[in-house]
Amino acid sequence: MTSLRPSALWLALLCIASLLVLLANLALGSNDWVWPLFATDDAAWLMQKTIIMELRLPRVLAAFAAGGLLALAGTLIQVLTRNPLADPYILGISGGAAVGALLAILLGLPLLMQHLGAASGAFAALLLVIALARGEGAWTRQRLLLTGVVLASALGAVITLLLALAPETSLRGMLFWLMGDLSGAPAPWLALIGLGVLTLLTLPWARDLNILTRGEASAASLGVAVRELRWGAYVLAAMATALAVITAGSIGFVGLLAPHLARLLVGADHRFALPSAILLGGSLVMLADLLARTLIAPQQLPAGALIALIGAPLFLALLYREGKA
Asked: Could you read off the pLDDT of 98-151 as tens digits, one per residue?
């Protein structure tokens, strides 16, 4: 029981840290400090309340949901592939979701069809990269990463073609969306509900995921239904990625960074690592969006670009470390 206390303590601290980052997002922005409790009169109170409730709160909730979904997907993918350098962005799954969503947008399809297009693209990309990496034998980390990079490059070319076909009036917004922009994020409730549902569906698998990290043969010998677990995790990872892409565009490295940081803090037990990764992913995107809104205010930067500036060097360091192992 005592071995669980540090992990539980870290999880509690992450909850507090996430709440503090959320409050900072509500209070800070292009209008400097905004908080209704310190308003000097009724008009100022009403204006600040409107800014928080109608502008900042939906955006910060969308940021948390998108980051949590990407962290959830990254955690599942790293377990499924037994590769700590795998994530939805690097393996091309985010690109597949973006292709599906952009194609639906160009065809003028309604929002529901855009969601279905993103889900279909994410799921197809996930299955394709696993199938190509495995081939006729067992996959290796190098083969999986190479396959993912190639697929991501191919999907990037498709995205470029779709942007070339897009009307000029919507081109700039689509470009910012692809870079991970939350200024035009839709209502966050679908992403938040999706995050909650997918988390509740995944947490009961924590024990089986712990065993699966030892290998499929060991997991099967210990009574884990490996085939059902893998297919279920594939579907949940694809759906989480699709919801994140629809909400905040294509944001990279969150699915890579958050699971790694969670394992460093709470260990490899997914009862704690999974919710910790979700909190870290949500906090990372919220923090990036806060910087995107305040660094050169009133002009806004894409949050995904700021995350990439941090994630790319860290990914290279992890890749170098894996090469020496």
From this structure: 888 888 878 877 877 877 888 888 888 878 887 777 655 555 656 777 888 888
Assign residue 249 a region (left: φ > 0; alpha: ψ between -120 and 50; beta: otherwise). left
Q: Is the peptide bond before 298 cis (omega within 30 degrees of 0)?
A: yes
309 φ, ψ (degrees, to nearest 5): -60, -30
Segment of 60-74, 207-221, 224-238 carrying the highest mean pLDDT: 60-74
Task: Tell me, yes or no, whether 58 lies in a domain.
Answer: no
Q: Is residue 252 part of a domain?
A: yes
**Chain mean position to CA 127:** 18
Q: What is the CATH number of the domain that holds 95?
A: 1.10.3470.10
The residue type of 172 is R
Which positions ≥6 away from 165 have C-beta within 8 Å?
106
Q: Residue 295 burial (CB < 10 Å; 0-12/13-18/19+)?
A: exposed
CA distance 66 to 126: 18
Angle (CA) 206-249-98 rounded to 5° is 90
Query: In total, how many domains does the chain have?
Result: 1
pLDDT digits (tens, 9 = 90+) for 174-228: 776 677 777 767 778 889 999 999 999 999 998 988 888 887 777 788 778 878 8
Q: Which domain holds residue 223?
A: 66-324
Q: Which residues contact 319 (CB under 8 A, 6 or more apart)?
A: 85, 145
239, part of any domain: yes
Question: What value, to the nearest 5°, has the Cα angle with vertex 94 and ends 22 and 74?
Answer: 65
Does the CA dihedral 10-15-19-25 come out positive or negative?
Answer: positive
| Cα–Cα distance, 283 to 278 (Å, whole number) | 8
Nearest to 69 by CA among 118, 134, 142: 118
Are 98 and 223 in contact by the 8 Å Cβ rule? The answer is: no
Mean pLDDT check: name the lowest of 32-36, 57-61, 204-208, 219-223.
32-36
Residue 127 lies in a domain: yes
Tokens of 207: 């024990």
